[in-house]
Design brief:
One of its GO terms (biological process) is riboflavin biosynthetic process. This protein is an alpha/beta fold and 167 residues long. Helices cover 44% and strands 17% of the residues.
Length: 167
């Protein structure tokens, strides 16, 4: 009996071009996420010259910028970073839900990993915890996920003709 085949991403074959698309809103939190993402990429051998950082106003604008990056820069992966902090109105749910849904659609439409590092939290304290204090740095974690997916997709090979690619 043959063993079950297992495939998983590795972190020793992650060279390539990465784009970090970041919403500036709540920049006091998001700046730490960007630092964490760049740190993870560089630690794993990605050349700093192969990292593009694109700033947009906030999480609402992330999907359009990610789409343009995928169309024009053709990165191996995109890391979307931002912070949506709940307030007293339903605005939070609309922004967070639409942003997350659009980011997921883009990675499927373009057959390219788009790691979602957009914090959706109830308080500024929770955001700070996820930006490098108690709960780790979600920017670092998002970059790790992006690199793992780049490696995994390389091992799985090209998408069959007619799948993936431009929308």
């Amino acid at each position: 009996m043959q063993p079950i085949a297992q495939v998983e991403g590795r972190f020793n074959d992650v060279e390539g071009r990465y784009a970090i698309v970041v919403g500036r809103f709540n920049h006091h939190v998001v700046d730490s996420l960007v630092e964490g993402a760049v740190d993870a990429l560089v630690r794993h051998g990605v050349d700093e010259e192969q990292i593009d950082i694109i700033h947009v106003p906030g999480a609402w604008e992330l999907p359009l910028a990610v789409k343009r990056v995928l169309e024009r820069l053709h990165p191996d992966a995109v890391i979307a970073l931002g912070a949506v902090i709940k307030g007293g109105t339903p605005h939070f749910e609309h922004i967070a839900g639409q942003c997350n849904s659009a980011i997921n659609r883009l990675q499927l439409d373009y057959d390219t990993p788009v790691s979602n590092g957009v914090l959706t939290v109830n308080s500024i304290e929770q955001a700070i915890e996820r930006a490098g204090t108690k709960a780790g740095n979600k920017g670092f974690e998002s970059a790790m996920a992006a690199m793992e997916m780049v490696s995994l997709l390389r091992q799985l090979g090209d998408a069959p003709a007619g799948e993936g690619g431009e929308a």
